[in-house]
Structures are given as structure tokens and as C-alpha cells.
Amino acid sequence: MVTTVLFLLLLNASACKGFGFKGCSQNFHETDVMWCFNQNIANLSEVVSMIPENTTTINLSKNKISVIPPGSFSQMLGLKCLDLSQNKLVSLKGGEFRGLGGLELLNLTCNNISHIHSNAFDGLTRVQTLLLIHNLLATISPDIFNSLPAIQEVDLSLNMLKVFSCGDSGGSSTLRRLDLFANNIQKLNVSCFPALEHIRLSNNSKLELQADVFASNPRLKSLLCQGVKGEVLVGLSAVTKKNLSWVAFSLFVEKSPLTICGLLKGMDRLKKVEVDLKGSRLPQTNSSLLDCATPPVVVIADANLGNVAQLSLGRGNTSKLNLINCGLKQISRTTFDGYRGLKMLQLNQNKLDIQRDTFEGLTHLTFLSFDKSKVADIDANWFVPLKKLTILSLTKNAITELKPKVFSALTQLEQLYLQFNLLKYITKKPFSKLRRLTKLNLSLNIIDFIEEDTFQDLTNLIYLNLSGNRIKRLTPSILSGLINLRTFILYNNRLHFKSYETPFINLTSLEYLQMTYQGPGGQGIGTIGPHFFQDQRRLISFEIGHSILLDFHPEAFIPLVNLKYLYIAGVVMKTTNMSAVLSPLKGLKKLTIYRADLDALPANLLPPDNTLKILKVQSNHLHTVEKAMLDTLPRLHFLDITDNPLTCTCDNAWFKTWAIHNTHTQVSYLYNLKCDNDRRSPYLWQFDDKACSFEQVSFTIFIACSVADMLFVCVCLAWHKQGPTLRFLLLILRAKLRGRRGAAGAKFQYDAFISYSCNDEAWVMRQLVPNLERPAAGAPRLRLCLHHRDFRPGAAVMENIEAAIYGSRHTICVVTRHFLRSEWCSLEFQMASLRLLCDGSDVLLLVFLEEIPEHCLSPYTRLRKIVHKKTYLLWPENPQEQDAFWVRLIDALKDSEEEEEGEGGGEQELARLIG
């Protein structure tokens, strides 16, 4: 016991310390945050019991929790955020959240909750946000709000509520936001929420609202009613309308007598309106949607406007206009004549044919978006009036080419989004004069060639995304001009480099470089040579991998003196000298080597004075974790070795103890680490390592085994050189010892045990037994042991055979072809031979009932050797010779008995047979 305690203290005093949690991982940067996401957790209690009491945030989403035992979180007095979404909860009966007086956010989204008891949230005095989205609630008691005195937001979207009504005693004076989207609500009463500011009632098609429904909600500013009959807005009281600043509704213009302006009448303080036109068409004679004053933000969606010469969208101070999926086709200068002060314009999800003068009057525009609008060609004339434009988005279109200097008029442009198009080449300097551009996204095109000096004018570019293309080559000439680039994303291309190349030598400000997934269709990244990162002294994060071919020169990382994060994945690194490659990275904080086919990590993985805090080596072939390796990482706080075939042997016994009992390095999902070789202990933490606790015992056993091996080798050599002599001396010695023990004479129950095949039983019973047990007058009478007659009932067959052989003076084997094929006969013969070898008793007598050729005996080595060295009896076919056979057999039995009484005959015969 004392030794065990000392051993554990020694582990605690080591350079490395560790700890882990069941089904959870502690956030490294924020140690009060626990991630227990998607871990198949069903038993909540055993997981929560291991979480530190000072935790403020727990994410338990996407598990299999069906019940929350009362008081499960009672020890976590400081918990502020609890996420139980995407589980299997069916009801809240009360007491589940006892003790969580400091909780501020409770997320119960996407469960199967159909009932909530009125006191289910008792004690949650500080909860401000309650999310119950996508459950099975058909009713909800307003009394639950009595337990939530600080509640500000409740989301009950996507449930089955038909009525939401205040009771006599329930309600909340603090609730500001209420979301009832996509229920079946027909009747609404929110009079018990006087502080309500925002309510969403969309997609409750049968909803009826009384004129004074919001009379008790003087602070109501936002009313969202898409998918609800427009008449519900018309009937609202004037006071309610006057207070609204954001309203959203649906209107089918072609079939409704109502108009947008009619619905907005009386809403004098409106700042934002969203209208879902549900596929409405404008009459050919009237292109007016709004003929009244419009708020600053107008969002119109799902219409079928077609070719609009001049779209009348009202008057006023509108600065942001979104026309989303409105069926717009041809737009021109007159389309937006009424919007000279427009600053933000979104024309997403249309089929636009843009005229060259379309934006001529929109000189104040700063944001323009044509996403998903099937734009194929870009005309540089579009942008000539847009002197103040800072953000341009052309995402998910059909653009195949960028013309020379196509964006040159946009001298103030800061962000340009061209992802998800059909660009194949970037040539002729399309980004000329964009000297203020800071962000450029060209991802998810089919680019396979970029001309030199393409980015020459982008001297202020900070972010460049070229991922998801087919780029094969990048050279310093292609990337010239990007002197301030900090983030460069290149994943999913076909890049290939030679060992002597320096592609990023001009990117002297680069901090983040991502170049994973280079293939298919390419040759792989190739070799990261000694000059690959030349002048990259500012690089902080580098990600590479998932490539057909990737190799690192031992000096590749020498220039990366400030590298903090390194991610290598999806490559074969068995032959890579990891120590040499990583030796320059003294300042590395996080190292991830994922699916790199590693069998082991070197003891000197990083230089001695390293500052590594996070090590992730998931999904490799690691069987053991070396203590020497972890001892060289004194600042390690987080270790992830999940999805490795760890062996539950003494080699990992120290690691199990280290991971469980120490408090400096967290072992990610420690209690989910499985054994690869031990079915009795499916998990590493269950492995019984008692026999591995003492290193001295292991060393002693090693020495003892080594000595035993050496002695065994010496004995084998001596036996090989002087085998016959040693056999003879051994047999003589054993015979003398047996002679002393058996001086009084051994006593046997039977004279002979008969070993025969059942196919030969007729000869045994008709010939052998009568002639030996009932001989003619004057001949000796012998006692025979037969299977069917003398074996003890109920005993094991093996026990009966052994007792018969050792209880009989002789063993007579009746040899035939049936005998040779019988497994039981073979076993009896081997046991009789074993007696011959063990105590020197020459007990075997062979009786052949038929001639058996030499080649038939070849598989039976011992039997063939005895036949060659001893005389055997052959049953004669001639009846006249059979009497002589019985005389010879009886004499053999008598002679053998006399030889047993001698002092050396058995030993000599045994030596002869063995030799």
C-alpha cells in the first residue's frame, strides 16, 4: 500500500500533469466552458458529476438525454449558459434545474417536449433567454413565467400551440421578445407581458387578432406576420400602429383588395417594412407597389415583377432596398429613379439583364449585391456612377470571364465577392486600380490559370480566398503586389511545388496560410523545400495536408520563427523525421497531426525549450503514449489522442494514471478512449493496471526471464551435442530412483489394457478375450481391461483411459487400418507412449491383424519407430498357426513382466526407442 502511494506521488511530481472528463472537453482558452456535443450521452448524471463546479457554459447538445434527474446541476452555482438542444427530452416535471440560480440562457431546442409543469423552472431567477424551438408543445401554462422574473426572450417557434393566452396569475413584466413562428395559433392574448417589444407571429395562417390585442403592450415596436391574413393588421388599433417601427407581412396583390400602403396606413414611425408578395404580378398598366412614404429599410420578396421600366416604390428617405426573388429581368436607369439617396441595394435571386446605365442615379450607393441572379457578363459601365461603393457581391452567378479593368471605376471598393461562378482564367488585370480593396473572394470557381501581375494593384489587400479551384501553379510573379496580405486560403486546388521553389516570398505580411486538399487531378503538393517559407517571419498559422504527395525538408520550417499554429492532416508521415522538421518551432502553441499514419511520436518531438500548449494527434496508429515524449512538453494543457488503437497493457499503465489523477493537462474525451486489445476492459480508464504499478518488479521479471532463456539455450546446445549420453545417464538415474521407490513391487489392477477400434471389436471378443482370460487348462489366466466393460461410468473419457493405462501392466494395441484412422486409438497409443517416456515402463505390445505397408505408417512417426526397433506380433490367417500366436503373446507378456523386475532393461530399451 505504501509503495502504491509513493508511486502515485511520484507521478504527480513529474513534469507533465493531466486530467480528463467523461464525454466532455474543456475549452482551452476559456476553461469555464465545457463542450459535451455529439458524444452519445444518455446518462447525464455520470457526465455532470465530473464537470468542475466553476463552469459557466455547458454544451450538451446532440446527445441522447431523455431524462434530467432532479438536482443534476445543483453543484454548479456559477452556470450561466446551458445548451440541451437536439436531445430526447419528453417532459419537464420540475426540479430538473434546481440550484441554477445564476443561469441566464437555457436552450431546449429540438427535443420531444410535450409537457412542461408550471414549476419546472422554479429557482431560475436570472434566466433571460429561454429557447423551446421545435418541440411538441400543444399547450403551455403562463404560470411558468412566474418562476422567471428576469426573462427577456422566449422562443416557442415550430411547436403545436393553438392558443397562447395569459392566465389570471401568470405573466412577466420583463419579457421583451416573444417568437411564436409556425405554430397553429388561432387565439392570442399577451396582455400579461407589458414590456413586450418584439413579437413574431408568422406562419400561423388561422390567426385572428382583436383590435385591442396589444393594448397592454405600449412598448411593442416589431410585429412580424408573414403567412398571416393581411386583415389582421388593418384591424389593429391606431395606438398600436403608431408605435410600430418594424412590420412584416404577406400580401397577394392580384387577389387582395388591400394594398401595401393601405396596410401601412397609420404606421408613422415605421423604420423597416418586409413584404412577402407570394408570387404576385403587377398589372401591366400599373407598376406601382408603393405610392406612399416608405421607411428607411424596404424588403420585398417573392414577387413576379418581370421587366420593370420604372418601379414605383414610394417616396421618402429609403436608404436600404432589398428586392429578393422578385422575378426581376430587365432593369434600367429609370427603375430606381425614385431612390437617389439609396445606400444599400440587394437584387438577389433574380434573373437580371442589367442595362449599362442602370445605376446612373445611385451615386450614394455603398453596398450592391447581385447574388444568385444568373449574371453572365459584367459591364464596366455599370460601376462608373458608383464612386462610393465599398462592397460588391456577385456570388453564385454564371460569370465566365473578367474583362480588363472591369472594376477600375470602383476606386473606393473594399470588399469584392466573386465566389461560386464559372471563372476559368484570371488575365488582363481585372483588379486594376482597386488600391483600397482589403478582401477578395474568388473561391469555388474553376480557375486553373492566373496571369502574372494580376494582383499588382491590390497593395492593401488583407484577405484573399482562392479555394475550391483548379490552380496548379503559384509563383512570386503571380502574387506580386500583395505586400499587406495577411490571410491566404488555398485549400482544394491542384497545387504542386518543387523543392527549390519560393512561391510566397513576396507575401511578407502573411499571417495565416491554408493549403489543404490539393487534388484530385494533380500531382500533390510535392516537397516543401528549405526555401519554401523564405521571408515568412510573420506567419502565425499554417495548415497543409490531404494531398497525394507531401514531403517536408528537415529545414523547411526554419524561417517560421513566429509560427503558433500548425495543422498537418491526411498525409503519410511514417518516414518523416518529425524531430528534425519541428525542431525550429520553439514558439509553437498548437500542433495538430491528423490522419498522418503515425505509429509512434518521437521523444524529442519539439525542442526542449518549446511552449506547446495543445497537441492533437487524432486518427493515427498510436498504440502507446510515451512518457518521455510528454515530459518534453512542460507547458502542455490539452492532449487529444482520440481514434487511435491504444493498447491496454502495462506500456500505457502510467498514461492511464497520469491522465486521470493530474490537473495540468486535459486529455480530451479521456473516458471515451477505447482499448484496442482487451475485451474485458473496453475503455482505457477501466484497464486494471495493478500488476503494472511496480517498475522494480517488472525489471526483476525481465532479468529472471533473460537468465532462464540463456539457461534454456545452453541446455538445448548441450542436448544437441551430447544427446544420447545425457539420455542414458538420465534414464539410469531415474531407473535407480524408481527402483528404490518400487522395491516392494508395483501392483496393477489389470495385466493388459486393450486398445482397439470398434470395427475390430468382433476379433477382440471372439479371439483375444477367450484366449487370454479363459485359456486352456494349465495356461496362466490374465486380467484384461476393455472399454465397454471396465471403464468407470460417469467419469471423463480421458480419466478412464489414463486410469486404464497406468492401472495395467501392459497396453496391447490391436493395429489395423481402422486403428490408424481412429482418434481415440491414437490418443490411447500416445498416452501409452507417454508412460514409456515418463517412467521407463516398456508397456507397449503391438498386434497387427493385417499387413500394413510401410507408406501407410509414415504419418505415424512414433508407431513406425517402434515397429522398426521392436518385434511385433502378426495375426496369422492360417488357423494352424494361431495356437502358436497365442503362446508367443502370453510369453511376451510374461517376458515383459520379468524385464520390469530387472534393473536396467527398461532404461536401455527406452534409450533405444528415443535415440
Descriptive overview:
The protein has 915 residues and is α/β, with parallel strands linked by helices. Among the domains are: 251-346 and 354-365 and 377-384; 696-739; 750-914, Toll/interleukin-1 receptor homology (TIR) domain (Rossmann fold, 3-Layer(aba) Sandwich). Helix content is 21%, strand content 18%. It contains 18 helices and 45 strands. It has a 28-stranded mixed beta sheet, with no helix packed on it. 36% of the residues are buried.
Observed structural traits:
28-stranded mixed beta sheet; elongated; 915 residues; Rossmann fold; 5-stranded parallel beta sheet; 18 helices; 45 strands; alpha/beta
The helical percent reads: 10-25%
Average pLDDT metric: 86
Question: What is Rg?
Answer: 46 Å
Beta fraction: 15-25%
The coarse silhouette is: elongated
The number of helices is 18
CATH-derived architecture of the domain at 750-914 = 3-Layer(aba) Sandwich
CATH class of the domain at 750-914: Alpha Beta
Which topology of the domain at 750-914 does CATH recognise?
Answer: Rossmann fold
SS class: alpha/beta
Q: How many beta-strand runs?
A: 45
CATH homolog superfamily of the domain at 750-914: Toll/interleukin-1 receptor homology (TIR) domain
Let me know the largest β-sheet. Answer: 28 strands, mixed
Give the terminus-to-terminus CA distance: 55 Å
Q: Unreliable segments (pLDDT under 50, ≥5 consecutive)?
A: 1-18, 739-745, 902-915
Oligomer: single chain
InterPro entries: Leu-rich_rpt (IPR001611), Leu-rich_rpt_typical-subtyp (IPR003591), LRR_dom_sf (IPR032675), TIR_dom (IPR000157), Toll_tir_struct_dom_sf (IPR035897)
Protein name: TIR domain-containing protein
Region (Disordered): 896-915
Biased composition (Acidic residues): 896-906
